[in-house]
Give the backbone structure.
Amino acid sequence: MARRSATDVADSRTTVVEAAVDLASVIGLEGLTIGRLATDLHMSKSGLIGRFGSKESMQRAVLEAAIARFTASVWVPVANEPAGLRRLEAIVDAWITHLGDGTFPGGCFLTTASVEYDARPGTLSDDIAKAAGRWLAVLESDAATAIAAGDLPSGRDPADVALELYALASGGSVVSRLTQNPTGLGQVRGAMRRAIGQAH
Amino acid sequence: MARRSATDVADSRTTVVEAAVDLASVIGLEGLTIGRLATDLHMSKSGLIGRFGSKESMQRAVLEAAIARFTASVWVPVANEPAGLRRLEAIVDAWITHLGDGTFPGGCFLTTASVEYDARPGTLSDDIAKAAGRWLAVLESDAATAIAAGDLPSGRDPADVALELYALASGGSVVSRLTQNPTGLGQVRGAMRRAIGQAH
DNA sequence: ACTTATACCGCACGATCGTTCGTTCGCTAA
DNA sequence: TTAGCGAACGAACGATCGTGCGGTATAAGT
């Protein structure tokens, strides 16, 4: 166990990061505060930030963990579905489920982060844009497969499908949450299914 | 207590508020800072906040002004269109135009504010939710008119149409901006038109 | 000319921000 | 047993936060 200490560091970081993800999903990645986080975890500010070196480094770790949560919650359950329309449908269901369960206590983390940084250039903004681009590429790829298989209209642009699904999930989640509309997510799922040609 | 010069006060406030709206559309309503705002306007912090009494009061004024901008930019140009599908189509065009011009330098203010406060209860959250509700009601009303006139499928739920349009505009704007996709807004318009076009 | 109202400023306050120290303590290796 | 590493701590730093208080310049009313 010569590497034990390194494992402890990782576990330690994980504890902090997971709590930070929960907090940031409510108050935003930019709204994260070392003092607030340290208080919540009954730690000292210096002991907490010492694991990361700086606040921005911590924010990057938090973002990475949030992306991992999203992937585990939405992508992993559907990864084995056949590419194309079948998987797109599975993604829609997993996505809506993800938005409704408590994976992110304060609503979709990536949406929150996207809005926070869409007008603020920097490393974090770049990382978020990359993550969004990767997810859009996944959607677009399955859309292209579906179109090639004749499961979606041949006139459809895969990029349009991807952007539409992303916009519906992201915007729909925010609006539903803000207006406290209990049927909102169900309506969003209907809209997403309509976007990929399903007339529920 | 003598009647003060209300117009001067309003003009003074307006100067500050308009600058604050621009700034908040970039860094968020919560990220607004009296010091930053005062520096930008070459004013003192006390002189600036003195017009509002408190920061939250200023934030409310900023939110109100942002809503007024949105109304002037999207609703006023289409208010005289005939209710129903015609006006919905005009709204889509005005909305997309609004998202693309520089009305809000940092992207749709109401979307930013919605995301900031969708998980943070309080007066500001309530005000934002009310504004979102009013706009959704406008969309829903025209959708209902369009359905009654046979311009939209009779099976469509007006509330679904309203939520779908709102989610597409809000989410699409953020994703397009974040990924710096120059054709994004055009794709979003296509999706919105599809949402109020021939369903299925 | 004198009063009055008020927009604005300078200044200071307590709190909190992110960060940097020096120190302590528990564990591991030798 | 002992030396050493690293996690965590308390304290303090300069900066900035929102918010008050007192003073001043200006403009209107009389």
Remarks:
- Chain B touches chain A through 53 residues (CB under 8 Å).
- The mean pLDDT of chain B is 91.
